[in-house]
Amino acid sequence: MTMVKKYERIDRQLVAKGSIIDYYHDIMKIPNGNTATWDFVNHKGAAAVVAVKPDGKVIMVRQYRNALERDTLEIPAGGLNADETMEQAAIRELKEETGFVAGEVSFLISIRTTVAFCNERIDIYLAKDLVPGKQHLDEDEYVEIEEYPIEELIQMIYEGKIQDSKTVCALMCYYHQYCR
Question: 134 by DSSP, 3-state: which?
């Protein structure tokens, strides 16, 4: 049996506070006794939803992502508000981004997006029995709604056309649990 080597955080220093994340330097004591400075990004959490219409098509959103400097095709998702559960956030984001309200919501999977330096957790839900409505986008949000058969979305993942980690995980999980 291998012995687990211990790491110890000596200090955490706030470098920058943002609207979505806080960025820190962690001063760590590593197993050999030396110290190292590691980046740490604290994220408040997020929720996402695979919204499936009665005809089997999945509702997707296309939006500009500044970090990639291009539009991406994703499942609806967004950050957790204060005093809100992950499921409530998923339901809210679905309505805000697409206008759809789900009659049935169930937990699908929980992911950690970038474990090397960030604690972001995204809980992903499956939404069915959808009722269309009106989008309620934030002032700086421009979202186009698109619908695809799940098989086409899986093919887009393998072709590299969908690379967003929460979307890849969510669609693959949905496909393997419900469509095979």
Answer: coil
Of 61, 125, 130, 135, give the one whose Cα is nearest residue 101. Answer: 130
Of residues 77, 39, 40, the one with CA closest to residue 164 = 77
State the pairing for strand pair 58-65/70-74.
antiparallel
Kindly give the confidence (pLDDT) of every residue in the chain, 180 residues in length, as a single tens digit, with 9 standing for 90 and above.
Answer: 566 679 999 999 999 999 999 999 999 999 999 999 999 999 999 999 999 999 999 999 999 999 999 999 999 999 999 899 999 999 999 999 999 999 999 999 999 999 999 999 999 999 999 999 999 888 888 999 999 999 999 999 999 999 999 999 999 999 999 997
Active site residue 97: no
Q: Tell me the three state secondary structure of residue 31.
A: coil
Q: Determine which one of 69, 96, 104, 139 is catalytic.
A: 139
Phi, psi of 59 (to 5 degrees): -85, 125
Torsion sign, CA atoms 83, 48, 44, 136: negative
pTM (two decimals): 0.92
